[in-house]
Specification:
By secondary structure, the protein is mainly beta. 6% of the residues lie in helices and 33% in strands. The longest helix is centred in the N-terminal third of the chain and has 7 residues.
Length: 121
C-alpha cells in the first residue's frame, strides 16, 4: 500500500470527489493501463477511455471486472452506484448508464486522484 496524500485520502478513504476538470488524467490520451493509486491493482485500460465531457476520466468498462466492486450510494440526496477497488476498498468514483450505447452504455466516472497510469511500451 502506498502512503496517500491528504487529497487522495479524502477521496479514496472518505468517499470524496475531486473538482471536475482538475484531475491529471481527464485529458490523457496515451495508451496504457490505469491502476489503483493506493494498491497498484489494474483497473482500466486506455482502450476503454472516452471523453464524456463531465470533467472526470470516463471508461466504458474495467480492464479486469473482478478488480472492481460496486455498491449503492444514496449520499447527497441522490441514488448512484459507487465504484471501488476490490483489493483495497478504495473509493474510485461512480458508474452511470449514460455511456456510449455501442460500448454497452456504461460510464465509469473515476477520480484522477485515485489512479496511477502505466504508459504502454
Amino acid at each position: 500500500m502506498k502512503k496517500l496524500t491528504p487529497e487522495e485520502h479524502r477521496v479514496m478513504r472518505e468517499g470524496g470527489t475531486e473538482v471536475p476538470f482538475s484531475g491529471k488524467y481527464v485529458d490523457n490520451h496515451e495508451a496504457g493501463m490505469y491502476t489503483c493509486r493506493a494498491c497498484g491493482t489494474t483497473l482500466f485500460s486506455s482502450d476503454a477511455k472516452f471523453d464524456s465531457g463531465t470533467g472526470w476520466p470516463s471508461f466504458t468498462d474495467p480492464a479486469v471486472a473482478e478488480h472492481i466492486g460496486t455498491r449503492p450510494d444514496d449520499s447527497h440526496n441522490s441514488h448512484r452506484t459507487e465504484v471501488f477497488c476490490k483489493n483495497c476498498g478504495g473509493h474510485l468514483g461512480h458508474v452511470f448508464d449514460d455511456g456510449p450505447a455501442e460500448k454497452g452504455g456504461k460510464r465509469y466516472c473515476i477520480n484522477s486522484v485515485c489512479l496511477d497510469f502505466e504508459k504502454k511500451g
